[in-house]
Write a structure and sequence with these properties.
The structure is a homodimer of 258-residue chains.
Chain A: H1 10-25, E1 27-28, H2 30-37, H3 41-53, E2 57-60, E3 63-66, H4 69-79, H5 82-98, E4 101-108, E5 111-117, H6 124-132, E6 136-138, H7 143-150, H8 154-163, H9 177-190, E7 193-195, E8 203-211, E9 216-225, H10 226-232, H11 237-255
Antiparallel strand pairs in A: 1-3, 2-3, 4-5, 4-9, 5-6, 7-8, 8-9
Helix pairs in contact in A: 2-3, 5-11, 7-9
Chain B binds a DNA duplex (30 and 30 nucleotides) through helix 1, helix 2 and helix 3.
GO molecular function (chains A, B): DNA binding; DNA-binding transcription factor activity
Domain IclR-ED (chains A, B): 69-254
Domain HTH iclR-type (chains A, B): 9-68
DNA sequence: CGCCTTTGTCCCATATTATCGAACAGATTG
DNA sequence: CAATCTGTTCGATAATATGGGACAAAGGCG
């Protein structure tokens, strides 16, 4: 049940703990981080200087900040993903057509990871929720995640469901395994998944999987504030999403399996 | 003169070397990486498993790939930058108005680092060069870099120029310090910098600095293929760029020093 | 103006720990 | 079915990250 939480190389784990801490604070010095992580100053200092030398951190006036290097590494790895190469433009135009905040999502280690998110901002209220929207969450907690999960091989589904214990994020999160499995059947049937605010209260969305005979490449999603989304769910929005997902799938298949 | 190339913590340097190698290959196994880096298999394997456990790498079928975590870390650190918060929309609309490939660039450790790049693609030819455009390069090798460099404090300018030895990237790269210094005077005078293909042959661009009384926040740039850019440089493009930069600066100043 | 705190940085002995070679198992290929 | 590939595991050794303490400098406060 309990995963191997033993990380082989400790310095690296420590290094990323510092990065995480630095990420929350935006900018910090060695002492501040050492206190927060209850580590010796000198150790933290060593790590900071190491990361700075490698170009991942920038130091300004004794204080340290995350550099652009992480962004560049991340963007480069994203750009090589086939689903992104074939889906990027489609997601962007989906955002324009639907007027919603749209995402391109992939599965990663049992989590749904957003690798593209559009900037379409209808109103200020949505903007706030949009910025708060997490870039990574368990598959079962959101529409694109459920859309992907529903089309994974059965053994992987059970594996993922078993490992995570279906803890609730909001009052609407699916916490019962039977409910989840029956919902996935529905998703496979109708071709799209719905999130009624199961990850973030009030954030309602629709998502369709990008799936070929071989595997699931990811999912396309459109999100919005609950009040204005509820009626959209009964109209053309689901069709729009599934069309976009189909376009991307067709584009991938046409380009060849590679 | 020679910088401290001694990296305190060796495992971390090694870890990022593996990440770099993995970045180039997109996907690779332990043996392949071990051969490329001339390291023992087991060491590389340890690093891979460590990074995978931390969520930065994903393993699929024994092979490893960079995960979306780097992207998320990078995006989050970017989103907290004031120049990005105030400049994001302006750069995007600049791309629409000008019809060019536009960038928002900051200085980082003597380099120009692109933290936003638009997706406006006039033609296929530009798309290719656009994708090849590096996200990080020495300040003196490109328009936004020179625009930033020109407005840094004098001591930092000499410090940066001294450290880098002005090696040529193309035939047009500025390699003489006096030339560079006189060009920077021109840039300060006319308010914008020009790149006639000094970093990538044929990639011509204009850039204007986002500068307040206190400091340089970065630069806005517009790039295009050489043939179609040369005439644009004599027309309204430079004005468009400087206006955008001024808009962003005004937005930052208005929001307060914070 | 000077004290006192707090910062970042440096040093070095010690023991933690990352390393690395070899061996194992599974898959793939000839 | 043998021969290579792969990824993985194990364990002893030596390398090395650690962390306590000391230093200088900057900042705050009386």
């Amino acid at each position: 049940m309990d995963e191997d939480l033993v990380v082989p190389i400790n310095s690296i784990k420590r290094s990323y703990a510092i990065v995480d801490e630095l990420r929350e604070r935006g900018r910090a010095g060695a002492t501040e981080l050492a206190d927060a992580l209850s580590l010796p100053k000198s150790t933290v200092h060593n790590h900071l200087r190491t990361l700075a030398t490698l170009g991942y951190l920038v130091e300004e006036e004794g204080s340290y900040r995350l550099g652009a290097q992480y962004l560049h590494v991340g963007q480069e790895s994203r750009n090589t993903r086939t689903v992104f190469q074939h889906g990027r433009d489609t997601v962007e135009s989906l955002a324009e057509k639907s007027g919603r905040y749209c995402q391109l999502v992939i599965e990663e280690n049992g989590d749904a990871a957003v690798i593209q998110s559009t900037q379409w901002v209808p109103d200020e209220g949505t903007r706030a929720t949009q910025q708060a929207y997490p870039m990574r969450a368990p598959l079962y907690t959101n529409a694109p995640g459920k859309a992907i999960l529903a089309h994974l091989p059965p053994e992987r589904i059970t594996q993922i469901v078993e490992r995570q214990d279906l803890t609730a994020r909001t009052e609407l999160t699916v916490t019962d395994e039977d409910d989840l499995r029956s919902e996935m059947a529905t998703i496979r049937d109708q071709g799209y998944a719905i999130d009624r605010g199961e990850l973030i209260s009030g954030m309602v969305g629709v998502a369709a999987p990008i799936v070929t005979e071989k595997c699931v490449y990811g999912a396309v999603a459109a999100y919005g504030a609950g009040n204005e989304m509820r009626e959209a769910l009964d109209e053309s929005l689901p069709d729009l999403i599934t069309e976009s997902a189909d376009d991307i799938r067709a584009d991938i298949v046409f380009a060849g399996p590679e």
